[in-house]
Write the structure tokens for this entry.
Amino acid sequence: MADKESNVPVKSGSGAPSTYSDFFDWHPLGALRRQINSLFNEFSPAGRAEFEPFERFFSAGSTLPVVDVVEKDKEFSITAELPGLDEKNVEVKLANGNLVISGEKKGEREEKDKNYYFSERRYGSFRRAFRIPEGVDEDKIEASFDKGVLTVRLPKTEAAQKAEKKIDIKAK
């Protein structure tokens, strides 16, 4: 057979991506992924986040709410940010030495105009479990909810409050 010239472009080099962004140029489905992302970004003014349920409800795209755990002299305190939820949509349980915080957010939106009808439903749930430290008085655990913030107080027993002892360091 006679030699034929090819019109297929060939990149020189090892063929493997050298940077993260090069990966999508090199990967066979990279171009398709960019096109689909572009379609979603153009379709919705808010971008893809509009299509991911409760993207803004949870932090950084995570499916878990932001939680702070603080140890104080007389108690531990767990604070969870739960914007848009009511206390009736949140549950706090003590089970097998764990404090379990769970909840569900439901949302419905409906718009009617003479030229269109729009209906949307979104649902999202979460569940966080925290191991109860030794020295917590489980019978006195309290939870309160105010303006989208859940605060759970885990009081320490008298013995746990006095259990700390400073150890002197001797130099040689």
In short: Strands lie at 67-71, 75-81, 90-95, 98-112, 117-131, 142-146, 149-155. Residues 10-24, 47-62 have pLDDT under 50 and may be disordered. The radius of gyration is 27 Å. DSSP finds three helices and seven strands in the chain.
